[in-house]
Write a structure and sequence with these properties.
- By secondary structure, this protein is of the alpha+beta class.
- α1 (14-25) runs parallel beside α8 and α12 (474-485) crosses α17 (670-680).
- The longest helix has 21 residues, at 58-78.
- It is 25% helix and 28% strand.
- Strands 1, 2, 8, 9, 10, 11, 17 and 18 form an 8-stranded mixed β-sheet that branches. Strands 5-6-4-13-14-15-12-16 form an 8-stranded mixed β-sheet.
- The protein starts with a strand and ends in a 14-residue tail after the last strand.
- A hairpin with a 5-residue loop joins β17 and β18 (342-346).
């Protein structure tokens, strides 16, 4: 038996075998895959096998598209046929809202070159003759989708890996994972006869599916997954069913269909899910199914009969009821954990068959190159905070995700399970003021305050059309305008806060940051950290508090990501300490033309522009409260972010609130921040800027200091600058102010698709619908084009940015 491997992969389903296949494709021959039983004996063998490409994110869609390319060629390459059926897919709309969703998907598909076609109910019936068109308002058809045999896929991937040198060991259960100084060193395996052996390894990949939490605990890593019992059935042959029948999904009736040996495979996602084996999966649950649960399936069966009446009289060949691993946000769990060298690829949420090819490729690249090819933040294991160590919380969130699997998910919608959980010191005050709360990373955060928008018909008249008008309130506009005209008070305590300290802190951050952070104490630097391709991995401010102490503030949802990126590069000499200090300080943002008037009435410290200029930080006292004050803004107005110790947060809110009333102070929420930052052209990491774009392409060249010396990504950035940008982020002002983009809409220049929207919204102070999109470098300021907003092409002009206060006088006043 092998006693050393470059990589050990735990789990022989489609995920594990795909990672082995792609690692060997990249030249790693010393790869060992171990499985507790036989290949595919977890969830893979009982998966339905549908493969759909168009998904809710750019990254996931690209991964699915690659999967289809791979599945087409696997049989010829490996000699094992995964039974790929490229029959196309139908997705039906049985409500006006769903039809609007399909129109949005049709526009989205154009940006990938996917041949998605919006068709009538009658055309859908032509392709799927058993379909009842009663209530069907329309459909989309994608000819390159299909289905396959999941077990055949895993066996083909395994064969490809073996052919390039990988070793596969079945009936080999991992019973221990060894680590040293925070890095994985190997696994201990128990063979069928009880013999135990150790495999030393540089990399260990947890691809254990529903067993991934159990495996993760061996390394001290939390993998928040809940097994859900998922049911579907196979019918006896039905007249009219033919092998080339497309797959079909009817989300309004909670069901899906595909052909199977002259009959139909039919399943769905019920409203009352069944979490399974929460106290631990039985050790012998290999290659097994659960007993059929017909009462739970009745809801799905009723919807299926409405859509395909022939299924009512068809005999049932067999019912499949098998546990599938679901995550709290319905996204994969991928990437390197806090234990270096220990990777996770699990939680495939019933679309792992479609995603297996892309998962394997991205994971292999991540392992070999240190970074994935694509922006995988939404799937990154680091996205989960400490609250997901609670199984009860994970269960609540995962149950909600399963219940709403087929729902229309409007942008800015909120989840409700497991709330409220993380509360700021000012939370009681926000409740008293009638805040409409959202949630991010477990934090309750005010989206808006409804009373601010009461009796504002002039703002209500600006309500965006369609989806953008959902989860919207006139208070958003009222708060944005009040911030521009007077002053707004924002509770930003959820902002992630990181301290970097120690004798090596400055040199360490200089090595990671693209900008020069070796500044005098009390100065604030806006910077990015780059990957080896010069793509943007983090985007935040760094405040130097002392010679050996730096304070980083980043987005609420990005704290774990940024911490992970920073810690990944820590030196081994203990010269640098990195701490998450988010919970140690509250944060209140005070912004607007009257901000200094309010603050000056509460402090004896000199806060004049001469004494306290823009992008500087000082310790001051506000009322009774000691505060770290940062003169910085994300809304484009004069003001400060005020960071008191957490226990002073409520007192600081009260002092500012009382002092601000004569000055027109309003409490404001995060949706106003988004409207204001669009007017000012401030970027959002993960949408406007990602690991795929360089600072020069994103319009952030001013935050790069090439002359400071070497830093991560510098060589690639110098090369990119010399070659010229592949694309540029541009500000687009739409002709119709009530046509508001939500992100991912196709952008057309001279009749050709030239890009997709990264983010959009309405700017209340400039009176315009604003969108940002990456366009070819040749598209100049003043150019015209149009954007597909729910099936209607809306004209726009490329505008010079920022639209608000282009000289920056207001923030420096």
């Amino acid at each position: 038996m092998t006693d050393h491997a470059r990589a050990v992969i735990i789990g022989g389903g489609v995920g594990g075998t795909s990672i082995a296949y792609h690692l060997t494709q990249l030249g790693w021959e010393d790869v060992v895959l171990v499985d507790r039983a036989e290949l595919t004996s977890g969830s893979t063998f009982h998966s339905a096998g549908l493969v759909g490409q168009l998904r809710s994110s750019v990254t996931l869609t690209k991964m699915m598209m690659y999967g289809v390319e791979l599945y087409r060629r696997l049989a010829a390459e490996t000699g094992i046929d995964p039974s790929w059926h490229e029959v196309g897919s139908l997705r039906l709309a049985s409500t006006p809202a769903r039809l609007e969703e399909l129109r949005r998907q049709a526009g989205w598909a154009k940006t990938f070159g996917l041949p998605l076609e919006l068709i009538s109910a009658a055309e859908a019936q032509t392709r799927f003759p058993l379909l009842s068109t009663d209530g069907v308002l329309g459909a989309v058809f994608l000819p390159t989708d299909g289905w396959l045999d999941p077990s055949g896929l895993a066996q083909a991937l395994a064969a490809g890996a073996r052919a390039r040198g990988a070793t596969i060991q079945t009936h080999s259960r991992v019973v221990a994972i060894t680590t040293e100084r925070g890095r994985v060193t190997g696994v201990e395996v128990e063979r069928r006869g009880g013999e135990r052996t150790t495999i030393a390894a540089d990399v260990v990949v947890n691809a254990g599916g529903m067993f991934a939490p159990e495996i993760g605990r061996l390394a001290g890593v939390n993998v928040p997954i809940i097994p859900m019992a998922h049911e579907y059935l196979f019918t006896e042959p039905i007249d009219g069913v033919r092998p080339d029948l497309p797959t079909m999904r009817d989300p309004d009736n909670l069901c899906y269909f595909r052909e199977e040996v002259g009959g139909l495979c039919m399943g769905g996602y019920e409203r009352q899910p069944a979490p399974w084996s929460l106290d631990g999966i039985p050790p012998d649950f290999n290659g097994k199914l659960l007993a059929p649960d017909w009462p739970r399936f009745e809801e799905i069966m009723a919807g299926a009969i409405r859509r395909v009446p022939a299924i009512a009289d068809a005999g049932v060949n067999r019912m499949i009821n098998g546990p599938e691993a679901f995550t709290p946000d319905n996204e994969f769990i991928l990437g390197e954990s806090e234990v270096r060298g220990f990777f996770v690829a699990a939680g495939f949420c019933a679309h792992g068959i479609a995603g297996a090819g892309g998962i394997g490729r991205q994971m292999a690249t991540w392992i070999v190159e240190g970074e994935p090819e694509l922006d995988l933040w939404k799937m990154d294991i680091r996205r989960f905070g400490a609250q997901y160590r609670s199984q009860a919380f994970t269960l609540a969130r995962t149950t909600e995700v399963y219940q709403t699997y087929y729902d229309i998910h409007y942008p800015n919608e909120e989840r409700f399970a497991g709330r409220p959980l993380r509360l700021s010191a000012a939370y009681p005050r926000l409740v008293e003021l009638g805040a409409s709360f959202g949630e991010k990373s477990g934090w309750e955060r005010p989206n808006w305050f409804g009373s601010n928008g009461a009796d504002r018909p002039e703002i209500e008249a600006l309500r965006p059309r369609g989806w953008a008008g959902q989860h919207w309130d006139p208070a958003i506009g009222a708060e944005a305008l009040a911030t521009r005209q007077a002053v707004g008070l924002y509770d930003e305590s959820s902002f992630a806060k990181i301290e970097v300290s120690g004798p090596g802190a400055c040199a360490f951050l200089q090595r990671l940051c693209a900008n020069d952070v070796d500044v005098e104490p009390g100065r604030i630097v806006y910077t990015q950290m780059l990957n080896s391709r010069a793509g943007i991995e983090t985007d935040f401010t760094v405040t130097r508090l002392a010679a050996d102490l730096f304070f980083i503030v980043t987005g609420t949802a990005f704290g774990n990501h940024d911490l992970g990126w920073i810690r990944k590069h820590l030196p081994d000499d203990d010269s640098v300490d990195v701490r998450d200090v988010t919970s140690s300080r509250a944060c209140l943002g005070l912004w607007g033309p009257r901000a200094r008037d309010i603050l000056a009435g509460l402090t004896k410290d000199d806060i004049s522009n001469e004494s306290f200029p823009y992008m500087s930080a000082r310790q001051i006292t506000v009322g009774y409260v000691p505060v770290l004050a940062l003169r910085v803004t994300y809304v484009g107005e004069l003001g400060w972010e005020l960071y008191p110790p957490t226990e002073y947060g409520a007192a600081l809110w009260d002092a500012l609130w009382e002092a601000g009333q004569p000055h027109g102070l309003v409490a404001a929420g995060y949706r106003a921040i988004d409207a204001l930052r669009l007017e000012k052209g401030y970027r959002v990491w993960s949408s406007d800027i990602t690991p795929d774009e360089t600072p020069y392409e994103a319009g952030l060249g001013f935050a790069v200091a090439l002359d400071k010396g070497d830093f991560v990504g510098r060589d690639a950035l110098v090369a990119a600058k010399a070659a010229g940008p592949r694309k540029r982020l541009r500000c687009l002002v739409l002709d119709d102010p009530r046509s508001v983009c939500l992100g991912n809409e196709p952008v057309r220049i001279d009749g050709d698709i030239a890009g997709r929207v990264t983010s959009g919204g309405y700017g209340f102070a400039v009176g315009a619908s604003i969108a940002y999109a990456y366009l070819p470098p040749s598209v100049a300021i003043g150019s015209r084009g149009d954007i597909d907003v729910f099936g209607e092409w809306i004209g726009f002009e490329v505008a010079r940015e920022p639209l608000w206060d282009p000289s920056g006088e207001r923030i420096r006043s």
